[in-house]
Amino acid sequence: MCPIWPLHLIILYILALCPLWVLCQSAPTLLATFLPNITTVNMDEYEYVNVTISGADMQAGDQFTLATANDHLLAADWNSTYTLTEDHVQKKRFDGKVRVTGKFLGRTNVLVRHHRSGTEGIQVNGSLPVIVLRPERVIDTIFVTSVATFVSLIFINFGCAMHWPTVKDVLRRPIGPLIGMCGQFLFMPLMSFGLGFLIFPHDPAMRLGMFFTGVAPGGGASNIWTFILGGNLNLSLAMTSISTLASFGFMPMWLFSLGQVVFRNAHIVVPYTRIATFVVGLLVPLGIGLGMQKWTPKIAKFMVRILKGFSTTLLLFIIIFAIVTNLYIFELFTWQIVVAGMGIPWLGYCFGYFLAWACRQPHADSLAISIETGIQNTGIAIFLLRYALDQPEADLTTVVPVSCAIMTPVPMTCIYIYQKVKACFVNRRKHKKMLEEDITPRGDSPQPAIISTADLYGKSNKGLEDDLKTDLENTGVNPTPVSVAN
């Protein structure tokens, strides 16, 4: 038996409580209270927040410093003194004002640390949650308005170039549109759903961004690229119209089925108004172009002549302007974002072309189906994310459709460059071949000969011969009479 029994039990309890006592002594006894208790600030802007620190562990000369959980998102500075005085010690209370400046999108916290001479500082209880948002800018409005205007103009050009009998044939035998709908409304949603789980296994918000991008077909740039690359423009326009109208039914089906699986807490709203706006913005300019074919054919022909140059200029404008206005979002790019942006459109191109090829469609039709399948309406995807998620997650997840929009034209740009280089070499070979075959100088060609009608028909046809000579002289040809023996 233990000689100090039962005192050894008390000693053991004391020894067990010693570490807890040490931790309690080192734990902060001050409490920071912020007003408001949560704040929102825009990027490159600042807000002021009042802070009150209370507690008994205060000494004159102590200092409070500020820190943020993520310095990349937010900066915090005192807008008042942060050194304690005797008055603060007596009141056991410190009141100050903090200025928080937003740097980048996201959520973070402002922390307060208590410093005493000779110590590194202890974190004070209490923190300030801060949400950093992206402000609405004038340049964003200018970009959206200018793109909408230019796209409307180019769809008028498409209407001028559209061959309505061909479109009616497509609608009577909608083989191409049916192939495209299989790709747009079956393959693309399922592919984006699976690819999202593969690339972002632990980030449901990013998976939702991928899925929303995959269920939004009907990008207006598909018609432009189809025309530039030599695809069937009439089929492309018919497919865009049909797929946009079909979105009224297929999009809700996918959003309320797999969309809930991807992100159960999302507030999913079907953008019927936005889809209807896109339909009107598509059909009205096309109707204007078709009307110009009938009532102003000369202007319509001119619009068709400038269509290719105008289309190329518009694409360059959209790409450059979009990059300039959204430079901030490149800070969010990771290899996963880049792969997601490439995967959605590029896999769509491949699937659409090979499905059309398997159905024995012509190359021009297969190209149009491929482009229609791969190009998504990223504007609708961004709209869906804005309504489905709270800020700043809504803006953070838009990096997926933005990445998709940036990666979409890469393969088609490469094809366009290849076509131009190939055409240059082909034309050069043709020109060289023509020069080699054309060995007879132009000046050595003989003058046309005239058979004398007098020799053929006698002197009575002298007047006919004179008339024929006069006509030839008026055309600049020097007739050389040739007598033909009887």
TrEMBL record:
Residues 458-486 are annotated as: Disordered. Residues 1-26 form the signal peptide. It comes from the Eukaryota. Its main location: membrane. Residues 462-472 have a biased composition (Basic and acidic residues). Residues 473-486 have a biased composition (Polar residues). The chain crosses the membrane at residues 142-164, 176-200, 206-228, 235-256, 268-288, 309-329, 335-355, 399-418. Keywords: Membrane, Signal, Symport, Transmembrane, Transmembrane helix, Transport. It is a multi-pass membrane protein. It holds the Pfam family SBF. One of its GO terms (molecular function) is symporter activity. It is found in: Membrane. One of its GO terms (cellular component) is membrane. Belongs to the bile acid:sodium symporter (BASS) (TC 2.A.28) family. This is Ileal sodium/bile acid cotransporter. InterPro entries: BilAc:Na_symport/Acr3, Bilac:Na_transpt, Na+/solute_symporter_sf.
